[in-house]
């Protein structure tokens, strides 16, 4: 039961007050002791004497009779039309009802938004068992700047870095260990993207990780012949996400969000060059120091060594 925030008495307090009255206290004395009016004390005494399991609980404020209540068959029609993906105004026009009435009923039915009609796709979590079985690649576009922005000075009205260009954060994350490799490159074109892939695979190989599969989205650079040739040379299979389904590449997406929060926007930078210089130290800390909740509090470096059977 939801008791009003300013209520002097709860059902337990009401029972105690009534009990005092029945033991011989006057209504006035009991009302004063419990901080309510005589009228309130008398009301709860009368309800108690009338009996009932919930006699000392608040009653619903809804009217007992509602002559103008929307008929059940009308509500059923509204629901049926909504499940045909009709908008609220269209339903109101079809049934000759007020938009506000239809909107209220739809909200009561839990169908206030059309998205409520679509079944939620269950979250399927997966994790490869060995480092290198799958690596995730993605790119994040970040604006360059050469003057202090609002994140430093707190004022959006001050000068902006006009036509400063873009930085492209390329990321590679191992599925099993979360070991990450990053670079800031001048573009997201096929040449830079392919070169990043080759350097990422070589970096992982130096740490004992042989890449078998590479997951990417369907960006043009990832669909290029140059990228395909690099994959073939590395002996890795290309796995693409389903269109408009970024969660399939969720580990790269999650890593990018973490990097934005802790690196790109984690502290102020005077210019984008300073920000770019900070990505490698941050990535090293991510791999070597920062515990990861998705791998039971281990760091990615600890995780990869555990999976590879290394002691260090």
From TrEMBL:
GO terms for biological process: DNA integration. Residues 47-67 are annotated as: Disordered. SUPFAM superfamilies: Homeodomain-like, Ribonuclease H-like. GO terms for molecular function: nucleic acid binding. Coiled coil: none annotated. Residues 127-308 form the Integrase catalytic domain. It comes from the Bacteria. This is IS481 family transposase.
């Amino acid at each position: 039961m939801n008791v009003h925030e300013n209520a002097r008495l709860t059902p337990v307090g009401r029972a105690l007050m009534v009990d005092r009255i029945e033991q011989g206290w006057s209504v006035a004395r009991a009302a004063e002791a419990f901080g309510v009016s005589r009228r309130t004390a008398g009301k709860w005494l009368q309800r108690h004497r009338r009996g009932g399991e919930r006699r000392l609980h608040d009653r619903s404020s809804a009217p007992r009779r509602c002559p103008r209540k929307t008929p059940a068959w009308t509500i059923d029609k509204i629901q049926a039309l909504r499940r045909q993906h009709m908008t609220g105004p269209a339903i109101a026009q079809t049934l000759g009802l007020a938009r506000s009435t239809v909107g209220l009923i739809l909200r009561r039915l839990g169908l206030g938004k059309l998205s409520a009609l679509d079944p939620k796709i269950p979250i399927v979590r997966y994790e490869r068992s060995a480092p290198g079985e799958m690596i995730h690649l993605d790119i994040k576009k970040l604006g360059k700047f050469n003057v202090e922005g609002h994140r430093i000075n707190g004022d959006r009205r001050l000068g902006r870095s006009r036509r400063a260009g873009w930085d492209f954060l390329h990321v590679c994350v191992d599925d099993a260990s979360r070991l990450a490799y990053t670079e800031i490159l001048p573009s997201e074109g096929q040449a830079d993207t392919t070169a990043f892939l080759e350097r990422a695979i070589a970096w992982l190989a130096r740490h004992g990780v042989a890449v078998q599969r590479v997951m990417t989205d369907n960006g043009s650079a990832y669909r290029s012949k140059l990228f395909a040739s690099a994959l073939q040379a590395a002996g890795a299979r290309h796995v693409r996400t389903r269109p408009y389904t970024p969660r399939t590449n969720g580990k790269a997406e999650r890593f990018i969000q973490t990097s934005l929060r802790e690196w790109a926007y984690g502290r102020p930078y005077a210019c984008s060059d300073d920000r770019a210089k900070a990505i490698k130290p941050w990535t090293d800390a991510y791999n070597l120091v920062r515990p990861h909740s998705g791998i039971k509090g281990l760091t990615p470096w600890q995780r990869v060594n555990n999976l590879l059977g290394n002691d260090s």
